[in-house]
Amino acid sequence: MTKAFIVGHPVRHSRSPLIHGYWLKQHGISGSYERIDVEPVNFGKFLETFHERGFAGGNVTIPHKEAAFAGVARRTERAERLGAVNTLWIEKGVLWGDNTDVAGFMANLDLSLGTGWDQDVDTALVLGAGGAARGIVAGLQDRPLRRILVANRTLSKAQDLVHGLAGYGPAKLEALAWEDLDRAIPGSQLIVNTTSLGMTGQPPLTLDLAGAPGRAIVTDIVYAPLRTPLLATAEARGLRTVDGLGMLLHQAVPGFERWFGIRPEVTPELRALIVADIGG
Ligand code: ATR
């Protein structure tokens, strides 16, 4: 029986066990995917011992993604660029780390909008400058965009992000002050919220989308609620919208494939299962 885990602190709210549990059942695999709560002081020890405890690998969530990056022996190019690891596995006795958040975000856009959507995007506007924003900017850097603007309440963090990722792709990266956000909307064909604004219990993200380009795409990584105030505003304007649940589902695919040997599918049934759990 193959065992995998999600390690975090706290980890009880994670929906990953539901996703992997669905795939295990769907494919009739005798395996498990368990939540493991590990405090930061014990994370190094956890990395060293999970294999002897019978685990093939697992996912890493807050607050361990940077420690996992530092603790693995080998990393994928993606993880290397981001400085954060969310997926672990052992290959020929060597501990590997990958970052699948990027692939999850991009797969969600490609499948929701159809490949080629990026041909219509000259400028992307990314809101926020945390770990999620880093991954998304890195994903967008692999596409033929001309400009990526990163707006953040704390401008210095946007500047750090831009500095850290500069030079990887064709797009010009620019940090933008939060006050200048509304002015950037008319020139942005893709708008991505990576902040926690709009999440259940948080204030909404209020953007003036009146001047947004008619075919603009608005996407949110917040998925609880599924239809955030930002997406509702965008829909009312007739813009194209992509919700955040697909990213969560697609980021799980590479890990499952590594541990259990089958590339799983993001089915409508799986999506419905998580939507029911969110209560949307
Ligand atoms: P993650 O790793 O998931 O991206 P994070 O590192 O905590 O999470 O980042 C949260 C993001 O939401 C940050 O960009 C944060 O802005 P600051 O860097 O200025 O803190 C943003 N954010 C959180 N609350 C916000 C608010 N009320 N208004 C604007 N931005 C907010």
From TrEMBL:
This protein's species is Microvirga makkahensis
Residue ranges annotated for the SDH C-terminal domain, each copy included: 244-266
Name the GO cellular-component terms.
cytosol
Keyword NADP appears in the UniProt entry: yes
Catalysed conversion reaction: shikimate + NADP(+) = 3-dehydroshikimate + NADPH + H(+)
Quote the protein name from its UniProt record. Answer: Shikimate dehydrogenase (NADP(+))
Record flagged with keyword Transmembrane: no
Pfam families from the entry? SDH_C, Shikimate_DH, Shikimate_dh_N
NCBIfam families assigned to the protein according to its UniProt record, in alphabetical order: aroE, PRK00258.1-4
Which CDD domains does the protein's record reference? NAD_bind_Shikimate_DH
GO biological process, alphabetically ordered: amino acid biosynthetic process; aromatic amino acid family biosynthetic process; chorismate biosynthetic process; shikimate metabolic process
